[in-house]
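Justification of resources, computational component.

The compute hours requested in this renewal are based largely on the per-chain cost of generating structure records like the one below. Each record pairs the submitted sequence with a full structure-token output. That output is archived, and it is also reused by downstream analysis tasks.
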Amino acid sequence: MHAPSPTLVRELAGRVPEMLDALRALVEAESPSASPEACAACAEVADGLGATLLGSRAERHVVGGRTHLRWRFGTPRALLIGHLDTVWPLGTVARWPFARVNEIATGPGVLDMKAGVVQLLFALSALDGLEGVCVLLTTDEEIGSPTSGSLIDETAADVAAALVLEPSAHGALKTERKGVSVFRITVTGRAAHAGLAPASGANAAVELAHQLVMIAGLERPGVGTTVTPSLLAAGTATNTVPAEATAHVDVRTSTAAEADRVRSALAALVGVVPGTSIAIDETVTVPPLERAASAGLYLRAERLAAELGLAPLVEASVGGGSDANRIARLGVPTLDGLGAVGDHAHAEGEFVEVGAMVERAALVTALTAELLG
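The structure output for this chain reads:
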């Protein structure tokens, strides 16, 4: 396509009925992450939409029983990525069906992120050609991409840039996403009768309490670092000194350096209660999407939005992670939040703004064209 203009927005606005039909089809193909079979059925629907809008069927990648879709046109330079799985259990659409009321569309998974998938496909269908485009739609993002992670890494390794169609932050593009680490703290002590011989025990719960005070002190809100002890467990009976105590700690950081600081501090924890020992396991590791990875693409998006006659863009830093974090870790320029504009993700009544679907699809068309140009 040529330089973007408001004509592109008008052309896509004329396709709103098609976009909503596609969105209805995806929402009605329920795809909770917990059901690989349902996700595979939704992938079949998405593949059909891709065949119509992109002109070809996707490569099927079945990993660990899960189906992921990838389209590649020539040597990929621009990667567009989204996911088909949702947090909503099977049967939700029966009580809460897809619906459009004036300029709002609602239904389970409509915001996170089936509208984004629709926008992605229609955006690419507005290009003059797809040479250099790669599209990846996965089915396990909501649970941390355990089976699609290596496919994402392989697909993103050699591209010039990645556009992530996750929902916006109330309209803002996501130029920063915090990294997420979850640590399990296990304290081992020694059991004893709480009435007959408490001194012969080593209280793991008391040791854990000491450690949690120190752990919480690692937080640095001024630079965006939060350290939150969450799930706790200790003891087996009310009359027994606890021989084991565990805690999970949720850590969110804006930079890799901060993640490393917290990780090192946890590894250096020293016990207080004699007879106890401490073990640290990092059970979840998601690197941050730092603004340096998105700044250049965001500036392009700002300029292109103006050329399209759209309202000025806004950027945001958010606490949750996505596949954008993984891609940015590879050194690939990555811009997130290019998907739907709406609210209540993962909550009853989630919705998208229909008019914004058109505008964001046009923006993705223009960004992709420039990346290919």
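The chain has two domains: 6-177+288-372, 179-286. The first strand starts at residue 59 and ends at 63.
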